[in-house]
Amino acid sequence: MADQLIRATAADGGIRAVGVISTRLTEDARQRHTLSYVATAALGRAMASGLLLASSMKQPGSRVNLRVRSDGPLGGLLVDAGLDGSVRGYVIHPAVEIPPNARGKLDVGGAIGNGFLYVVRDVGYGYPYSSTVELVSGEIGDDVAHYLLTSEQTPSALLVGVFVGAEGVTAAGGLLLQVLPKVARDDSLVELLESRIGAIQGFTPLLQAGKTLPDILDSLLGDLGLQIFPEVQMVRYQCDCSFDRALGALKLFGVPELKDMIEKDKGAEATCHFCGEVYQADVAHLNQLIADLETELG
Ligand SMILES: [Zn+2]
After folding, report:
1. Residue 257 burial (CB count, 10 A)
2. Band of residue 185 on the pLDDT scale cut at 50, 70, 90
3. What is the pLDDT of residues 48-74, one digit of tens each?
4. Domain boundary among 237, 252, 284
5. Do residues 254 and 150 share a domain?
6. 10 lies in the same domain as 70
7. Ligand 1 centroid from CA 242, angstroms
8. Could you tell me the distance, in angstroms and rounded to a whole number, from the CA of residue 4 to the centre of ligand 1?
């Protein structure tokens, strides 16, 4: 199935459900960043989580950033996902590979290690809402669910997965089930969702068995008055970097450093962390930045 996101409700609007298939965009990220197996799984889970989180925002242009800073060999990662279905991200040490865990699975928790998850929700104006939680397991899904419960007070069951083999990513995506605030006190409902998510042996086996997102939601919530919204949203890896933004980033180095770049390198190169695009600034560009800075500083 093509990469896509669908939304649904159940229990008379008391449950919000979102499902995402992100196989191609995860493969896209793997190729762009030459990710190792475990880095593909970590970033793929985080990108699926970012898209699921962004899907609940209302204001057009809203985005969610998930940043993991941790002491494991991957060194952390960053994901930027939009309500519009665009997502991008990178891993600090993308080539690191570590042995599988005791269950024979890619050891994302071990590769991430201990640290913190920083979540920023930006609606496009005013101050972004940001929050930090300590990582629970480093497996990403648990960590994001923990964030939703403790920082957003929304009991949530989150399942994200990536299957990556010698041919690349063949299945990726996730599910988010949330008990909305009006019924969040209904502990039995929360327990029911957790037990149903817990009974699934991972998200990617369902995709590999040929299940569609509606099939999966129906098997989880079909007896609870599931209503799937007709709109199917496409999701994709997309970076909005540009030459102007690259110049903006160079400007932050300040006048002495820019003069140094002109002197030593006769220009500067800026590489976008998210997509790998390389932007070349020549001496004239750098001189313009210096002139801009000197005007601003008066
Ligand atoms: Zn870019």
Report:
1. 12
2. low
3. 999 999 999 999 999 999 999 999 999
4. 237
5. no
6. yes
7. 7
8. 22
Residues 145 and 285 in one domain: no
**Together in a domain, 175 and 251:** no
111 vs 183: which has the higher pLDDT: 111
pLDDT over 80 (residue 106)? yes
Q: What integer pLDDT is reported at residue 183 of this predicted model? A: 64
Higher pLDDT, 120 or 202: 120
C-alpha 199 – ligand 1 centre gap (Å): 39
Q: Which domain holds residue 272?
A: 243-297
Distance 245 CA to ligand 1 centre (A): 10
C-alpha 267 – ligand 1 centre gap (Å): 20
Q: How far is the CA of 191 from the centre of ligand 1 (A)?
A: 41
Q: Length of the chain, please?
A: 298
What was the pLDDT predicted at 19? 98
pTM: 0.91
Query: 279 C-alpha vs ligand 1 centroid, how far in Å?
Result: 10
Among 237, 259, 288, the domain boundary falls at: 237
pLDDT for residue 126: 79
CA of 273 to the centre of ligand 1 (A): 7
Distance 181 CA to ligand 1 centre (A): 37
